[in-house]
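Table S5 (text form). Sequence records supplied for joint modeling of the two-component complex.
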Amino acid sequence: MARLGDEVSNKQVLLRDYVMGYPKESDMYLTTATVNLEVPQGSKAVLVKNLYLTCDPVMQFFMRQETDLTGYNRYTPRSPIFGYGVAKVLDSGHPEFKTGDLVWGTTGWEEYSLITETESLIKINHTDVPLSYYTGILGMPGMTAYAGFYEVAAPKKGEYVFISAASGAVGQIIGQFAKLTGCYVVGSAGSKEKVDLLKNKLGFDEAFNYKEEDDLNATLKRYFPEGIDVYFEHVGGKMLDAVLLNMRHHGRIAGCGMISQYNIDEPEGIKNLMHIVFKWIRMVGYTHRNYYHLYPKFLDIVLPYIREKKIVYVEDIVEGLESGPAALVGLFSGRNFGRQVVAVARE
Amino acid sequence: MARLGDEVSNKQVLLRDYVMGYPKESDMYLTTATVNLEVPQGSKAVLVKNLYLTCDPVMQFFMRQETDLTGYNRYTPRSPIFGYGVAKVLDSGHPEFKTGDLVWGTTGWEEYSLITETESLIKINHTDVPLSYYTGILGMPGMTAYAGFYEVAAPKKGEYVFISAASGAVGQIIGQFAKLTGCYVVGSAGSKEKVDLLKNKLGFDEAFNYKEEDDLNATLKRYFPEGIDVYFEHVGGKMLDAVLLNMRHHGRIAGCGMISQYNIDEPEGIKNLMHIVFKWIRMVGYTHRNYYHLYPKFLDIVLPYIREKKIVYVEDIVEGLESGPAALVGLFSGRNFGRQVVAVARE
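The corresponding structure-token record, covering 694 residues in total, follows.
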């Protein structure tokens, strides 16, 4: 077993060069470096062993040279990529973390990371739930779902709620929050399997495969004959346009992503935006990053739901760092089934 | 002078037939009916002499057969059109109004109206300001500006504020609220005269004629090198798309109209809506109708501003009911200069 101060080998996933459009597997490559398992003297860094990493749609932007990335760091060619993960502290110069702590936050796609920017790290205090959940329902997507549902759109009992990309990391949690609140909940997804998941495992009232619908306006009218009160927006484009036609007065649209629009040269124009004015709709873009102060409140709500099995969470876990690039690339063709996780090590 | 119970002639502006697209003068016609200057026994109606009427962009929709008009009444062919106005009560069966009262609210385009739907009528208690102001700064546009500025977008001192259709009934008030709050304020309008008005009379920091700008994105970058915090949206289309590119993080967009989009077969697609998500923008459609309970609070703020000449208000008054149809139609070519008012009678 590796000990403090040992020089050990460190498998890493590196970015080959800046990417245009969707990343391909060949835009990343594996290499093996070495790492000293000790935080340099006087540093406030934290040295961790990475356990679980996740694949997020936003990571594609970090691979580009040109995108406007206010508040985010870009990847550097021939350096390890990074993202949210769960890790175990091996050594720490930081007063808040000590050897043996489990943490989640931004870490490298490698076996061991020396984390110098520790602002995103949060100590894990509850380990009676799967550790990988801190990459999902108890991590960034969970916080995003919580902020979008309880802070931004705040659907009330009996309201009509629609969620696009509903089987995704955020959508599946929002849908279950909505059901627990007593809303009528419909989700859209991109395959029969995902639709089955929504209806049979996650308890959505209805779900449909958008790829099989020719006229999304008619589809939404079928599922929402009285209109939509709250829409959780994760795709943009044609779906948003159809939703606008079907929104009710005083409706709310909460958006934390528009995945259909990320990789097209010219974004699709949204034609029905006038409905925002006519129907007094509130459309709000948000990010989990503005709600970190609510993390304890969020855990108070979500941990009991998980323990009492009132919320289920679906993960798609691949084994080994070397499976990471394919898993990340798979996000953009909808290959993943639930939260895409890469298990680097189990302990 | 006409007396209670007299049968008098009543000049009226009637809708000829339902209209498609922009109304033309010939879609309306004048006629002279008769009216009995007395409220029928047992009725709770109010009989008024109309003094000032106004032309609102929304009136075009009341002329159409097909538009979805939740909460609004449509005009009836061969009946008088209606809109906001100031009137004097000649007879009343309603406990809240008595002979001699001045009121503002929805009334007919005619010399005398028997108003049976009295919900919109508000008694005028302050007559030391021009009566016609109750069609504008002290009426619906004033309430709209107040709601948009203080309740919806709430710009703070030092923020960067952009207003489209800034010389319009609502825009000119919002701009002055913004200046009084200590914001940096830029407005767009459609003529050199309107731009001069904004800069020289209404105290905007800057203003431009959008018809003379080829690249609205570049224009906005010139006036807002640090971006826009709050946008008051009255036009939609290309302007909104350019604004989205220039919004700052946590920006707010308050919309009570999108006049550029009302009469085109296919609305222009808005391509930059992703910025709402990326920059955590709040875009809110609103109407004065949801804020009537704040009317006394609104008067408390605005009446002193008017009396102390801290706010000026520009009206474009035409004389006589017969000038009404041309004035209304002129709205859609931007012919009016400030709030378009039709003076039917002065007392």
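Note: Chain B has nine helices and 15 strands.
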